[in-house]
TrEMBL record:
PANTHER family: OS06G0235800 PROTEIN, PRE-MRNA SPLICING FACTOR. One of its GO terms (cellular component) is spliceosomal complex. This is Pre-mRNA-splicing factor SYF1. Residues 10-102 form the Pre-mRNA-splicing factor Syf1-like N-terminal HAT-repeats domain. Residues 158-211, 219-341 form the Pre-mRNA-splicing factor SYF1 central HAT repeats domain. Coiled coil: none annotated. Residues 343-418, 420-678 form the Pre-mRNA-splicing factor Syf1/CRNKL1-like C-terminal HAT-repeats domain.
Amino acid sequence: MASTMEISADDVPYEEEVLRERFKVGTWLRYLSARGTAPLATRAAIYERALRALPGSYKLWHAYLTELAAAARALPITDPAHAALNAAFERALAAGMSRMPRASGTCTPPRSSTSASSRHHHVWTLALRLAGLPGCPAETAVRVLRRCYLQFDPAHAEELVAFLVTASRFREAAEQLAVAIDDDGFRSAKGTTKRQLLLDLCEILTKHPDDDVAGMPGIYNKARDVFEAGAAAAATVKDFGLVFESYLHFEHAVVAAELDDAIQEEKSGSVIRGCWLADKDDADLNMARLERLLERRPEMLNSVRLRQNPHDVQAWHERVKIFKNDPGRQAAAYAEAVRTVDPMKATGKPHTLWLAFAKMYEGRGMLDSAREVFRRATQVSFKSADDLADVWCERAEMELRHQNHEAAIELLRQATSEDADMMESHGTVESACAVHERIHDLGLATPLLVLSDAALLRQHSRFEDAFRVYERGVRSFKHPHADPIWAAYLAAFVERYGKTKPERVRYLFEDAVRQTPPEAKKAVFLRHAKFEEEFGLATRAMKVYEGATGAVPVRDKLAVYDAYVARAAALFSVAKTREVYHRAIAGGGLTDDNARVMCVRFADLETGLGEIHRARALYVYASGFSDPGAHPDFWRRWNEFEVVYGDESTFRDMLRLKRTMATAACTGVQAAETGAVKRPCAGQQVEGCGTLQTECKRMRVGVAL
């Protein structure tokens, strides 16, 4: 671009200003603004003068390149304006504009210029656009993508691989995938996992075995390493199936390629074919690899299952069966199994691994090793005491099979309570207690052994130790096994501290109620009430019975109320008995059948006291949930009552109510068949009986009294 220009009269003030302050950008920008309508050559001359004075000015270079690019954009590529633009751009880069990527993007430079300015990420947008143009040479595009994705942003290496595959450069694609897989710090921008990258590499290798990929040094071994790593990392059977299928396909392709090479060599008729120094035929070796891969499939699949759940007992047994022809690997598998499986997390019975391990040694005549396995098995904390018992029994049976009777007896003595019985009969109390402690620590204690241990301590007046044994027993066993221990514990405690420490006894009863399930609470409540009657107050006993009525299940409520009524009648007046009956009938949680029984008993009580109206009101109340067809005994009792104590009017009312209940029962059955039945409460049924409404109200008043 020419750097000369004619100076007019209008330019003189600006020329004088630039002569005075030639190193100020504003001076040159004002000059350029004043000559905004001048030809490009004139403005270019001003730009050249300004840039000679200020070669590092971003504003001047950016404005200059923008004008040159705008002028060359409409011209053909062969026009000298493009050459001038490129020359100006090269000068800008040399002047330091490579650090200013926005200025670098003003025009479309050649690849070498792009490389010079590729220190900033903004330039890569243009570079990638250049690589993606249809007319861009493949080599240029590959170099641009390689520099961008491998040097500047390695996380996008998959895009380079995709381009290489599209360009049929499979060898380079495989190399880039292998590099990404080997790089522990590689993180895909697309979120692709290493397993998927492995599968992509395997797909390239299997689909293009005859391409240049086959010529890569050690690529087949690298592929096998990739497949092995993929199979070892598979977390599910489905993932393993995909990897193994690709692995198998790859080995088939390798064998096929080797056979094709052998056929071509035979056709070529080479004179050195068959010489062992020149023989590169690996067909037999590759075939052996293929067969070995098929043989290893069960082991590899079993490894996947164990990675999913290392505590799967059945999977470990299957693994041992895979090595049935290799005793060494069997022993190693058993050792790894018993070391890995946690009995508390195991799926299956973990003690069977120990038993099978010992039987393997026994079958090969290695009894010392089998005994060591059994010894270690007896020290394991199994989830169930039955598992530990099986280990002891199998250990003793092994000694019996080899005629070691004394050793078997000794083992059984250690594992059972015979040792405890012997110590109780012939040893001291301390030795017997030590045996019981050992039995409990091994998890072999039974309720009978707990009772025996506590009884022994009580016989020797060691009551607190006995109570501690009881306490440990009720903590170790659940219902129903803990019930006899609680019974003995409470009886012994009441006998020892019933008179002297009643508060401590009450606390124990409360603890027993908290720990026992609802179906076992009745016996505890009845013992507690009996204790209060003997050593406490009758009012406390009534409170215990009252608490029992709400704590026991429905099937035990009637029995509790029977005891409650009986003790209330024996210890208090009729008023207390009526109160108990009223509580049972009104809100005691009884079933209809049990409530009917309580109503009849309550009516018998009132009849015996001469309270005929009260008794009749109870019969009326109970009739509300007594179907004549389903409960004829109740109506027969009421009929006998009216015959003895009633008159014609009350008898007629009873019959009318009976017919009403029968009709209501039939209506309820029909409604139930249509799914619309809703049973009213007993009080509503009685009040709906017309003439008996007044008597029902009178009955409620009587019961409340």
